[in-house]
Every structure is written in C-alpha cells, then in structure tokens.
Amino acid sequence: MKIAILGWGSLVWDKRGLATIGEWQPGGPVLPIEFSRKSGDGRLTLVIDLANGELVATRYVRSRFEDLDDAIGNLREREGNPPKDRIGFVDLTTNTERAWARENQPDASDTITAWAQASDCQAVIWTALKPNFAEEQREPFTLPAALHYLNSLTGQTRTRALEYIHRAPAEVMTPLRRALQARAPRDAAIPNKRE
C-alpha cells in the first residue's frame, strides 16, 4: 500500500525517526492551520484549527511502511506517542477513516479524503491533535493572547518557541506568524502589550 504522510510543522524540518521515501513535496491538501496548541515544553505548535486556522497548503511525503498500522505507529512514535486515535487516517482501499478525526475535524477530513482520491496514494495519515490554548491558558486563542503568552516566556523556553515558529515551512503563513514577522526581527522582543 502506498501511504502518504501529511506535514505542516516540525515533521517537515525534523523527521527524527519518521521513516519516509524521498523528501517532503509541496501540494498537499489545503487545511486550516495555526500555532494554537501549547506543547509540554511551552512552544505554540501548529495544528489543524477549524476556528482560528489560516488555510495553507500542506506538504506530503511517502511512508517507508506499506502497512497502515505500521505507518501510523511510526508517525505516532515520532510525535511523542499521543493517543493512537490522534493519528488521523484515510484508507481508500477499505473506505475507512479515523472516527476521532471525522468527529473533531470533519471539514479537514473531507479535504484530506478528496486530496487522497486525487492522488496516487491508497492511504493518508496525519497528526490530528486539537488546539488546546484555551484550556492551557484559560482564555480563548486570539492574536493578542498568543503574543502576550510568547512575550511572557524566558530563556530556552522562549528560544525554542520562537525557533519553532521561524522554522515552519514558508507557506505556513498564519496570522500569528505574520504578526511576529511584522513586529520584530527574529531575535527581537515580542510586544508585551495587548492591542
């Protein structure tokens, strides 16, 4: 089975154990993406965000695995072992998909399925984590809230958080990334005040 992996964040510049054939290619499905998930180390990471995401073209690469469960396990391991149902999939050979992704990211699931049907892949897998900024910060994700949060970071946490945003693929131009690029050079301070 030919399996495509979708990427829009650190997978693209840091495969770290992700078993692939070839390099990341442009032309993946266009999905709503934003830096609206707070990771365990304090970074704001890119996820499918139906409420706040900017439509961006994702990338894809072929998995070295031909068995869907093996490919899912490999992606799950690379992503730090989130719950198995947080690795979305569409399998065109059996006409099945991840129920959790369908329930929580229905529009994205439709887009990915349509892309898969137009590709030469039999299956597609992706990281289907949800935004969690509101839960972690106890306030809705907004541009001012995200900028305020990033400005509150110090030391290595701040360095890692800004590096993640700056290393995202060029086409992943979300409102938060545009705001950071417009307001400050790479190593300058992020504005503290909310506007």
Give the structure's gist in a few sentences:
With 195 residues, the protein is an alpha+beta fold.
Protein model, in words:
This protein is of the alpha+beta class. The chain has 2 domains: 125 residues, no CATH class; 51 residues, no CATH class. The chain is built from 8 helices and 7 strands; from the N terminus they run E-H-E-E-E-H-E-E-H-H-E-H-H-H-H. The chain has a 7-stranded mixed beta sheet with strand order 3-2-4-1-7-5-6, sandwiched between helices. A hairpin with a 5-residue loop joins strand 2 and strand 3. The longest helix has 13 residues. The relative contact order is 0.20. The C terminus is likely disordered.
User: How many β strands by DSSP?
Assistant: 7
Please estimate the helix content: 25-40%
Mean pLDDT level: 92
Low-pLDDT stretches are 186-195
Largest sheet: 7 strands, mixed
Mass-distribution shape: globular
Ends distance: 50 Å
Structural class by SSE content: alpha+beta
Q: Whole-number radius of gyration? A: 17 Å
In quaternary terms, these chains amount to single chain
How much strand? 25-35%
Structure characteristics:
195 residues; alpha+beta; 2 domains; 7-stranded mixed sheet; 7 strands; globular; disordered C terminus
